[in-house]
Amino acid sequence: MKRLRLLRWSGSVLSPRTRPDLSQLQPHTFRRCQATAAASSAPLEEPVPEAAGTPFLPEEILQRLPSPPVTAARTSAKLAALHARLSLPSRLPLETLARTLVDASADPSIRFNNKGFAVLGNDLLGYYTSEYLLSQYPRLPLAVVFAAMYAYHGPATLAAIAREWGVEAAAEPGGEVDPGLLQFKRLPSEPRPELPHPQLISTRQEENPNFRRTMSSRTVYDDQFGEIKERTRSAETMQEKGATLQRASTDFVRAVFGAIYLHAGRAAAKQFYNDHITSRQVDMASLFHIKNPTRDLSRLCAREGFQAPVAKILSETGRKSRTPVFVVGIYSGSDLLGEGAGASLDEARTRAAVAAMKGWYLYSPTEFRLPSETEEPGARPWTPILVDPGEIAN
Amino acid sequence: MATSQRASRSLCDTFSRAVAPRYVCRTCRSHIVQPNVKQIRQATYSTGARENRTSLRPKAWIQRGGQPGTAATYATTASRSQKSLAESEPSAATDGYEEAHTWDGYEEAHTWDGLEHVGHQGHWRDLPPRPQDDYEPWLVAPAAPVVDRNEFLGYLYVALVEKLPYKGQNPALQQTTTDRTLDESLPIDVSSLQIKLSDSGTFSHLEDKTGAGQGKSDTTAAEASTSSEGSSRPFEISVAAMEEQLSGARFDFSSPLSFQILKRFSQLSGFRVPDPVLNAVLRGNKTALEFVELLTQSSKPKPKSVAEALIMKQKQAFGVDAQPSSTSAAVEAPNKKNTPPKPLGPNVMVLSRRETPVDKEKEVGRWKVIERELKARGLPVLGHKVLAPQGEAWNETLKERRL
C-alpha cells in the first residue's frame, strides 16, 4: 500500500502563518505568526504597525482582523477550558485549537482557518469508522454501512458532539472575539429551502431523478455517506455566503481530529476517536429497511446452500379474539433462523423473516482486529478477517 | 461576675423574707448559715437606695465621683462591689452625699466664655503659621524612592561608617560618632575601613584594614553613595566588598546604636524602614544582607487593586512579563518552600475592570454589528464611554435639531 508522507503536505498546515493575500482582502496588513512556527518566512513589504509585536492588540486593529490573532489564544479562558475538558494532549497547543474553531467562512485564508485540519480529520474519521464497521459487522449491506457511517460521524452527529463539548458559537467572527468561540459567518436569513431535509439512502435527493444511481456508483463516486459530493464551485459560493451552525460545528470537530493527528500522532488520534466516536451507542438493527424479507431470506438460503426456509407456528393465543398473537419461527431444515410475533400470521412470518435476515447481516465475530492496529509498533501481523461475498441482490 | 452577684442578691432577698423552702441545697445552706459580710451590706445598700431614689435622681450627675449607695441600677451596684470594703462604708456614702449637696462654689455655665480653647474656630487656612507650628522633619521622603538593592546596600554601609565607633589611627575619624559625616572635608578612604563584628555577629566597631592604600585600587565596580546633604564626594567601594563585610553581620536590637544606624540609613536613603521589615529581622535573626533584600522587596510599588496584582501574577506565570523574583521570594518567606509563581489557571481571566454588557457583546463579536446598525439608522451608540465621547458628530447634530 502506498504511504503518504503526511509531513510533507502537512507542512502548509504547520507552516508559519502570515497573510500574503491580505493586500487583496484587507485594506490593512498585520503580521500574525503562528506560535508553533519558528519564524515567519515571507517578509512583508508593507509597514507593520508596532502593536503587531505585542501580545495585546488595540481594539481598532482587532476589529479589522477576520479572526482572532494567534496571541489571543493564550489569554482565552474558554479555550483553555475546552482544551482541558476534552483532555487533549499537551502537545496540541492552544493556538492550534483556536485555529480549529475558525471556519473557512469566517477567515478565507487557509493559513488561518480550519479547512486543512477538517479535510484530514474527515478522512481519518471515515477511515476509522469504516474499518470498525466492516470488521465488527462483516456482512452489513452497503446501504446500512452508509447509514452507520452517517450515524457515527455524520454532520448531525458531529454537530451534536460539538454541542456536548460545550463549544459556543460567536455571533459574528472578528479579531476581537474570544478565540474559544466557534467562528463562522452565518448564512443570511432566508426562507427554508423548498426541498425537504435530505434523507438517507433510499430517499435522498438526486440531481437528476431519472438517472439511476446504484449502490456501487455511490461507493465509487459519492462521499463516505453515499451522498453526492458538493461541487467545488458551489461549495465556494456557499462559503462566501456563509455557513450553518451545523456545518461549522462539523468542520470544527473534524479539524480537532486532524489537529490531534498532526500534533500528537496516530495513537493519540485513535484514542481520541475511541473516546468520542466509538463510545457512542448506535443501534445497528434499527438502520435496516428490508422491503421483501421473505424473498430475500429464500434467496439467501439458496445462495448459501441451506434448505429452503419454512415458517412454522410456534405458539398462538386468542385466535378467535380481537387481539390474537401468533409466534412464528422460520426454519431451515431443523435450524431455527428467526422468530417473530405478530397479530396475524403474515405479520408474524414477516417479522420472523426480518429477524432471520438481521441475524444474518448482524453477525459479529467475537474477536476481531482492526487494520489500523497493525500500524502500531510491535503489532502482530495482519490475519485476514471474514469477508462476506456480498449482500443479497434485490 | 455580674450573674453571680445578681444571683447572690436574689438569694439574700429571698432568704431575708424568711421563706423556708422544702429543700435547700448544700451551697444555699451554707449561705443561710454563714452569710458573708459583703452580701449583707449589699442587701442593706439596696434597701437604702430604694428609699433615697426619689430624692437623688434629679441630681444624679453629682454622684459621678463613685459614691456608694446612691445608684439604684444594677451596673453601679456591680461596679461598687469590686471596690474594697473600706471604701464602701455606709458612713462615707452619707458624708459624700452631704458634701456634694451642700457645695456652693459651683456655678453653672451658660456660655463657653472662659473655657479653655482647644483647636481652631474654622478658617484654619487663613490663619498665619505660628512659630510653634514650624518643625524640621527628621526624614524628608524623596519624590522618587529608592528601589535598587545596591543603593540600599551603599546607604547602609555609609550609615554604618558614620555611626559605628572607630578604633584606628586616622585622626579624621576620631570624632564622636554623632558628629561624623562623610563629606568632602573628611580625608578618609572608605575602602580602607573594615567593619568589625562582635563575637555574637553584631556590629561592633570600625577598624583600618591592614593593607590600607591598596584597597582603592582594587575596587572594580564603582558604587556611588552620597550623604543626605548631597555635598559629599563619592566614596568608591565595590558592591562585592560591601557584601563581604556585611555578610553574617546582624543588628543588635538591645543596643541604641542599631537604631541610630537605622535612622541614619533612613535619612540617607529617604526610605522609612517599615515596622514589619524590622520585625522580620528581629524575630528571624536575619543578617544585614537579608535586611537589605527585605527592604528592596518592600520598597517596590504595590499594585493598587486586586486585579492589577492578579494580572501581574498571570503574566509572570505565563512568561509574558518575566521578573526575577526568586531571591526576594526566598528571603521573604524562608519557611515556605521556594515555589515558582503559580498561575491562577489558564481558564481564569482577570479583567482590569467590571465587565459590562458591551464587553460581553464584544466578546461574541456582536457589538460591531450593533454599532454598525445603529450608525446606519442614525442612532447614538451608547453604553460605552469610549464609544460615545462627548461632542461626537451625532451629538452635535442632535443639538442642532433641538435648536
TrEMBL record, chain A:
Alphabetized, the UniProt keywords read: Mitochondrion, Ribonucleoprotein, Ribosomal protein, RNA-binding
Q: Which Gene3D superfamilies match?
A: 3.30.160.20, Ribonuclease III domain (1.10.1520.10)
Where does the record locate the signal sequence feature? none
Q: What is its main location?
A: mitochondrion
**In this protein, which residues make up the domain named RNase III?**
79-265
Where does the record place the DRBM domain? 292-362
Write down any Gene Ontology CC term.
mitochondrion
GO process annotations (BP): RNA processing
| InterPro entries hit by this protein | dsRBD_dom, Ribosomal_mL44_DSRM_fung, Ribosomal_mL44_DSRM_metazoa, RNase_III_dom, RNase_III_sf
Question: Where found?
Answer: Mitochondrion
Q: Where is this region: Disordered?
A: 372-394
Alphabetized GO MF terms? double-stranded RNA binding; ribonuclease III activity; structural constituent of ribosome
Which superkingdom heads the taxonomic lineage of this protein's source? Eukaryota
UniProt similarity note: Belongs to the ribonuclease III family. Mitochondrion-specific ribosomal protein mL44 subfamily.
Q: What is the name of this protein?
A: Large ribosomal subunit protein mL44
TrEMBL record, chain B:
Renumbered to this chain, the Low complexity biased-composition regions fall at: 217-232
Tell me where on the tree of life, at the top rank, the source sits.
Eukaryota
Region (Disordered): which ranges? 63-97, 204-234, 322-346
What is the name attached to this protein's record? Uncharacterized protein
Q: Which organism is it from?
A: Capronia coronata CBS 617.96
